[in-house]
């Protein structure tokens, strides 16, 4: 039986995974990089999963509400300005996923940009989607040598009343992610 640790930031993003021969464990991490890293590390210690699957909502600049992105590449926008000082700001989790043979047929490629602020103004960001947790989770998983993947539902367009749109779109995001996981992507 394959153990999958499913992470999500807030209860409104919870989606139950129903896949054959998969034992899912769920952890609500809370919002932000610190909470996400802490709660994920604790859950990994307890569950010892084969795979960590992060799911949830994200903002975007260049795409449409309702789009879904499978992210294997992550950018920490808070640390991007510090790369001249030798600090890391990007993680690519695809090599370990490929080595283990997980999620290879999930083709909706995207780059997730993570930071500790909810972006409400249009600014230059690297990536397809913007969240507040995925980079931290990718960092923890890489350190523990556990494959990590993040699937994000675009819930809001940055600069267009994002906080209100995000709150209004949570139910649609749950439906869209549930359909994606339990109908379209039933194989790991």
Automatic annotation (TrEMBL):
Coiled coil feature spans: none
InterPro entries assigned: Nucleoside_phosphorylase_d, Nucleoside_phosphorylase_sf
Residue intervals of the Nucleoside phosphorylase domain: 11-172
Cellular compartments per GO CC: cytosol
A biological process term (GO) from this entry: L-methionine salvage from S-adenosylmethionine
Single GO molecular function: adenosylhomocysteine nucleosidase activity
Signal peptide extent: none
Family matches, as Pfam families: PNP_UDP_1
Name the record gives this protein: MTA/SAH nucleosidase
Source organism (scientific name): Bacteroides faecalis
């Amino acid at each position: 039986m394959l153990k999958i640790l499913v992470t999500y930031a807030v209860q409104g993003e919870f989606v139950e995974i129903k896949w054959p021969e998969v034992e899912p464990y769920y952890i609500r991490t809370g919002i932000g990089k610190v909470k996400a890293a802490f709660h994920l590390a604790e859950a990994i210690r307890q569950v010892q999963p084969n795979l960590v699957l992060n799911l949830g909502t994200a903002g975007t600049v260049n795409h449409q509400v309702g789009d879904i992105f499978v992210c294997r590449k992550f950018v920490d926008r808070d640390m991007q300005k510090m790369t001249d000082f030798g600090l890391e700001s990007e993680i690519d989790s695809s090599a370990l996923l490929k080595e283990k043979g997980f999620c290879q047929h999930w083709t909706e490629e995207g780059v997730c940009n993570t930071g500790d602020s909810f972006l409400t103004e249009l600014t230059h960001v690297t990536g397809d989607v913007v969240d507040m947790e995925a980079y931290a989770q990718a960092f923890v998983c890489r350190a523990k040598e556990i494959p990590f993947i993040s699937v994000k539902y675009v819930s809001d367009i940055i600069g267009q009343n994002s906080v209100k749109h995000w709150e209004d779109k949570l139910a649609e995001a749950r439906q869209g992610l549930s359909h994606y996981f339990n109908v379209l992507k039933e194989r790991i």
